[in-house]
Fold this protein.
Amino acid sequence: MSQNDQVQVPVRPFEADGIKELDNNLPSWWVGLFAFTTIFGALYLLYVHGLGGPKIADEFKNDMASMPQPGSAPNGSGDSKDLNAMLASQDSIASGKAAYTANCAPCHGPSGEGNIGPNLTDKFWLHGGSSDKIYLSIANGVVEKGMPAWGPVLGDNKVKELTAFISSIKGTNVAGKAPQGTEEP
Ligand code: HEC
């Protein structure tokens, strides 16, 4: 192809190290996309701020409202029994102990004396030592501190059995990890 056959494209009026830049037209698909996003952005702005479309703050509020609330029963609560009755039931405490040995002993020690996790047999609690607070600690965990949330894993009934077991060893003061948290009667 000789020089004369080439389509004449304007050259931009500068040069760097002998390299010149052609001044091509932008590809039509690019121009189209640009026009589309600009128009879409303008309409969307109008929709959200002018025509009462959903605000981010409202969407956040709705999402939060549909999350399980603290204290609400985690998965599998359908057939679960009353926590207060289980606290006094030797059967529940025994099942809780088995679940404790299987899931909790590595972090809280075989007798609850503490290891990575706090001593569960002293009177000191980081998140409250009443049975309902213990239930919440187990069900929801303290994920950012390394305590997993067991509600979704074990189900409500097992969490209640574990609460019964922990409540039964609470205050037995097994020598182990130094107290953490605040003292409770
Ligand atoms: C991977 C380690 C780990 C495992 C496994 C674990 N925990 Fe924990 N647990 C922790 C840590 C760490 C904390 C302390 C959280 C904090 O600092 O707020 C904790 C806190 C707790 C608390 C609150 C204690 C307080 O002082 O308020 C309870 C109750 C508890 N765990 C029960 C259990 C039970 C029951 C299981 C088994 C189903 C279990 N944990 C399994 C690490 C673990």
Observations:
- Residues 75-79 have pLDDT under 50 and may be disordered.
